[in-house]
Specification:
The chain has 494 residues and is an alpha/beta fold. The chain has 2 domains: 291 residues, 3-Layer(aba) Sandwich (Aminopeptidase), CATH 3.40.630.10; 150 residues, Aminopeptidase i, Domain 2 (Roll). The chain is built from 11 helices and 20 strands. A 9-stranded mixed β-sheet has the order 1-2-3-13-4-14-18-16-17, with helices on both faces. A hairpin with a 2-residue loop joins strand 5 and strand 6. Helix 9 crosses helix 11. The radius of gyration is 24 Å and the shape is globular. InterPro entries: Peptidase_M18 (IPR001948), Peptidase_M18_dom2 (IPR023358).
Length: 494
């Protein structure tokens, strides 16, 4: 399903290897195999499976299944995931060390009715998702990935399958400068009619009537009528379907076909899309699997990683950070004693949940703004994070970020012990400030929260720039957080 081109392999092979995990190399591989939130979660599950984590289902009771010293994960919509390792001395009401990130990025998504034809060009209707720098998508080679619901003829069920076409299929061409002499001074475009990819030349493509049964009622037009047959044939070919009519529907996303790669004179940069926020998904994942192997017998708490879909559009969905996904998981864990005799109806369960919320800590991790050398005046003069300088603590007096002094004291102690340098970021008073999942989950649970992230340039562009050394630094910090939080939390009095 995930094909890596020779171009990508040659890039990876140039990276030096060592006896330890080469995080930049692993991150490049992760990026090149994770073009949609569904692929992100799929690849995170594979990593967790390899490290002894067991999958749980929200549709079932966890009583008796979740054991001390156990490792587990649960997904929602296959685009959000929570994974955790239970301490050997866990008791209900104890603290939980939590990291949070998001799996989505600003992208173009194929519309439900995408078939377009203009001036002998086949075009694909797309919808803007999130706050992307859309002009960066012009003239890039674009491919398609996502999930597809198909009829399984053997079982008679409709099943979900991942697809990544992994070839240059689309292009949003710019207008030649000869026809727009002001393009370099003012590049403006209509997102509905001019942010429209071309996919081919009209060649008499049929409407697919042979795949549509005219004598049967259908509440919606079949996919073969709503989308270009060429796209459906590529999907069917990759999934080994007997006919495009087996495709019921899909959620397909455009992405930059150019592979993620290391760059710079000394491979100090990561050039890729989706650094916001697969960076934090990757670092929290590796930190958790490392921490799950360290002193878990003596751990009194739970070490937990959460990654959510739909952060780029406000998190208000069934699988976003503003849903009940994480609170529900925390409630289940806080009321379970870790053995088959646990009673979820214990009258003290509610008290245990509230105790756990009060003792726990949420490290909300999203990428931060690195100082841009060509736009230094856009930054607050004393808060200019640099790529390669380590994780950035993000602070905002208006609570767009949730960092406060108790959280900074905690993170500083962790970073001192792990020998991880930290940076500080405050947005200039003349600029607007983005936000994260931190304030959302803090307000839903009351859990103490801090916002931080690795610095990048060109945030929300189709191609962002991050730091290769920052990956290992953040993993070290998160690992220290998972391993030390339960012993530290009672010593910081608020």
């Amino acid at each position: 399903m995930f094909r890596v081109t020779l171009r990508k392999l040659s890039t990876m092979s140039s990276i030096a290897t060592s006896s330890k995990t080469n995080y930049p190399k692993e991150f490049i591989k992760f990026l090149n195999e994770s073009h949609t939130p569904y692929h992100v979660v799929h690849n995170m599950k594979l990593h967790l499976d390899q490290h002894g984590f067991q999958e749980l289902s929200e549709r079932e009771a966890w009583n008796g299944k979740v054991q001390r010293k156990g490792r587990y994960y649960v997904t929602r919509n296959n685009s959000s995931i929570v994974a955790f390792a239970v301490g050997g001395k866990w008791q209900p009401g104890n603290a939980i060390a939590i990291t949070g990130a998001h799996t989505d990025s600003p992208v173009l998504r194929i519309k439900p009715v995408s078939k377009r034809k203009t001036e002998n060009y086949e075009q694909v209707g797309v919808e803007c998702y999130g706050g992307g720098i859309w002009h960066s998508w012009f003239d890039s080679d674009l491919s398609i990935a996502g999930r597809v619901f198909v009829n399984d003829r053997e079982s008679g069920k409709i099943v979900s399958k991942l697809v990544d076409l992994n070839k240059p299929l689309l292009k949003i061409p710019t207008l030649a400068i000869h026809l727009d002499r002001e393009v370099n001074s003012k590049f403006e475009f209509n997102k509905e009619s001019q942010l429209l990819p071309i996919a081919g030349l009209v060649n008499g493509e049929s409407k697919g009537d042979e795949d549509v049964k005219e004598d049967s009622f259908s509440s919606l037009k079949a996919v073969v009528e709503r989308h270009h047959r060429s796209i459906l044939e590529l999907v069917a070919q990759q999934l080994n379907l007997s006919s495009v009519s087996d495709i019921e529907d899909f959620e397909l996303i455009l992405y930059d076909y150019a592979a993620a790669t290391l760059g710079g004179f000394h491979d100090e940069f990561v050039f890729s899309g989706r650094l916001d926020n697969l960076t934090s998904c990757f670092t929290s994942l590796h930190a958790l699997t490392l921490a799950a192997d360290t002193n878990i017998d003596e751990e009194t708490g739970i070490r937990l990683m959460s990654c959510f879909d739909h952060e780029e559009i406000g998190s208000s969905s069934a699988q976003g950070a503003d849903s009940n996904f994480l609170p529900n998981v925390l409630e289940r864990l806080a009321s379970l004693k870790g053995d088959p005799s646990s009673d979820v109806n214990d009258p003290l369960s509610k008290s245990y949940i509230l105790e756990t919320f009060a003792k726990s800590f949420f490290m909300s991790s999203d990428v931060a703004h690195a100082v841009h050398p060509n736009y230094v005046n856009k930054y607050e003069s004393q808060h200019k994070p640099i790529i390669g300088g380590g994780p950035v603590i993000k602070i905002n007096a208006n609570q767009r970020y949730m960092t406060n002094s108790p959280g900074m004291v905690l993170v500083k102690k962790l970073a001192d012990k792990a020998q991880v340098p930290l940076q500080l970021f405050v947005v200039s008073n003349c600029s607007s400030c983005g936000s994260t999942i931190g304030p959302i989950l803090a307000s839903k649970t009351g859990v103490r929260t801090l916002d931080l992230g690795n610095p990048i340039l060109s945030m929300h562009s189709i191609r962002e720039t991050g730091g290769s050394e920052d990956l290992g630094l953040q993993i070290k910090l998160f690992k220290e957080f998972f391993e030390q939080y339960s012993s530290l939390e009672s010593n910081i009095i608020v």
